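Field log, afternoon session.

UNIT: design team B
ACTIVITY: writing a sequence onto a fixed backbone
BACKBONE:
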């Protein structure tokens, strides 16, 4: 009986050992499965995360802005006549006003009537600024001085007349285009007065009426009446 009991106890131990091994194997299998599931879930989570958006590119400043800000202002060419110290062509910056043009021409003279000039008016390229004298009409524009032609012919025709004024038969003499020699042929007008007429229209602009002759030194009411029908503008 003793040996048989020992055999039974040994068999029971072996059976218990086999059971323990099955339990260990089962536990290991569960751990492996759990690890596999965890690995799969981790991989799915990383795959579902969106990729970070790229940072917006910073646009470098273009050279056009620099070029625009450093571009020099264009200059305007303006013709100034009348009562300014330096009549003629002046250059002023873009955006200039009439008072800028007068300043560029040396400023107004003491005889200038600036109340008849819009000093704040803007200036365009190729403009003409005429500054009138007090009590005198503003200097006008003589088309013949630019285009020539008919005006010069009228002066030449008058010059071909007789010294006593016979030139009037060819038509009135144009005060704004006739030469000093042609004006000298008019009755009562000598070389000095003829030169004064030419000088006056160059300094103050063309005559606008025959009556403007009174502004010329040496021509009074009596002489103006004598010339009235012999000259024109």
């Amino acid at each position: 009986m003793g040996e048989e009991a020992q055999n039974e106890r040994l068999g029971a131990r072996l059976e218990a050992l086999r059971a323990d091994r099955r339990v260990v194997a089962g536990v290991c299998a569960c751990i492996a499965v759990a690890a596999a599931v965890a690995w799969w879930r981790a991989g799915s989570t990383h795959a579902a995360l969106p990729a970070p958006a790229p940072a917006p590119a910073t646009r470098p400043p273009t050279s056009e802005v620099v070029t625009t800000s450093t571009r020099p202002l264009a200059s305007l060419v303006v013709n100034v006549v009348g009562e300014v110290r330096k009549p003629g062509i002046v250059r002023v910056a873009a955006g200039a006003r009439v008072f800028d043009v007068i300043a560029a021409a040396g400023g107004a003279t003491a005889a200038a009537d600036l109340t008849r000039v819009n000093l704040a008016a803007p200036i365009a390229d190729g403009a003409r600024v005429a500054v009138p004298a007090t009590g005198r009409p503003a200097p006008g524009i003589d088309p013949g001085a630019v285009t020539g032609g008919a005006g010069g012919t009228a002066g030449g025709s008058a010059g071909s007349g007789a010294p006593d004024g016979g030139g009037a038969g060819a038509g009135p003499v144009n005060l704004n285009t006739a030469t000093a020699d042609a004006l000298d042929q008019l009755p009562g007008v000598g070389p000095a007065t003829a030169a004064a007429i030419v000088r006056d229209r160059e300094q103050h602009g063309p005559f606008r009426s025959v009556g403007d002759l009174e502004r010329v030194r040496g021509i009074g009411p009596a002489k103006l009446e004598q010339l009235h029908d012999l000259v024109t503008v």
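LOG NOTE: The two ends are 167 Å apart (CA to CA).
NEXT ACTIVITY: expression trials, pending approval
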